[in-house]
């Protein structure tokens, strides 16, 4: 019988021995040292009564000790909840409401109102260390962690992922790596970790880096360019907005970033034009991962894939019409997927679970198609729409078409009220360098490609798109008149 997660993590750290696996704030931590920290925190948690099925919330920064606490909480079989920065007080209270223990290192702000017992990470790290590999207490069908969605519609939904699902995940099993992941893993020698370990993407690819024999490196620089250059990082996760900035900085400093080999774009799809520019300026380093909180990774494009493609999905994927019937290649429809590590549903929300999870499949609510070679192409979201004269128009195709105009670097579309048509298209555009987009030209482009109803009636130029705490474009702020631009 396969030992449950995080057994493979413990074995990786044990096998690393004296090799450096974490660099943080000018110090290095070996695999043996990190494993010792896991042992101490696990002993401390068990001493306080934490065990299988107990909720453990983690209010932690990014450090070797914080990483050890994550692994330790899973070692005792707890239901782990990561609390990321940037949440409202109400959202944080919601995340902490159903936990027996709250572990904090003081870096993520006060715990505030909570039901669980507050534990200081430093106190847990002072627990005795018997030097013996910790016993993994996890049970396969217990919930291993609650992965929260961005909360862009209010209170974040919690996706419940079991220990069986985490054990089946591909990132710690080199024999199960799809070709694109194997290509990425070979470039993770020095993986830059930042933001929060509550990030699903950061944790997943951090574990992949360890499985590939790499080192996790933290950065104190707010600017990713400076962080990569200073720490000689070979890889990191990046959003579309940060990729745009990184490309601009690289043009200014062509001699920097010589160590860079991989950037994993996450959160939202980059426009094909940005991918081509990034390849020209940074070289063949951009990977684009497509996945959801509910499913984990669904597909991944390598630097060699055609811009806009998401590569060939290594998971079960069906494109279905509105009646739920599979459609042939080349036909757009809604994407339904099955992945080894997908969550089992939304925590204590059976009605929402029934809407998205059915018969082992997860309804992504994304639109796309498979081409004749099995490559995946996204075309929009089923709920990201503008209703013009009672007809739904998806914003994804409009955004992609706008991004093809030479004056446009990035484009984001929201619905605005309109006295004549009910709703109309409002385009928020990040101008390409040296250009000033013109509403008339953009309207003509969209009208010719998608019809007059999809053409923007309003245009706002912004310096950058506002982001949610999860790093995704925050269209709610755009629609509310908070573009944080010009």
Automatic annotation (TrEMBL):
Any one GO molecular-function label of the UniProt entry: acid-thiol ligase activity
Species in which this protein is naturally found: Streptomyces apricus
Occurrences of domain AMP-dependent synthetase/ligase (ranges): 18-347
Name the record gives this protein: Long-chain fatty acid--CoA ligase
Residues covered by region (Disordered): 466-486
Keyword set, alphabetical order: Ligase
Annotated AMP-binding enzyme C-terminal domain residues: 398-472
Compositionally biased residues, Basic and acidic residues: 472-486
Methyltransferase is among the record's keywords: no
